[in-house]
Amino acid sequence: MKKIAIAAALTLAATTAFAGGMSEPVMAPEVVAEVVETATTGSSSSTLTIAALLVALLALGGS
After folding, report:
1. Residue (of 26, 23, 25, 6) closest to 14 by Cα position
2. Taking the CA of residue 33 as centre, how many other CA atoms within 13 Å lie in the half-sphere pointing to its CB?
3. Residues 6+ apart with CB under 8 A from 43
4. Which has the higher per-residue pLDDT, 30 or 24?
5. Average pLDDT value over all residues in the chain
6. 1, 8, 42, 50: which could join 46 in a potential S-S bond, CB 3.0 to 4.6 Å?
């Protein structure tokens, strides 16, 4: 019974050793992630400039 168990273990070990065969390995193409840049919103100084222009227009229009 021990000989059968040893033979089974050696058979399993031999099949995994030759599982790859002799053919050249096929490599999958490399996937390169594309970097997507998002447009940044305007800075706070441009927001203040627009607000100041609106206040100036309202002040000139109210006079």
Report:
1. 6
2. 3
3. none
4. 30
5. 76
6. 42
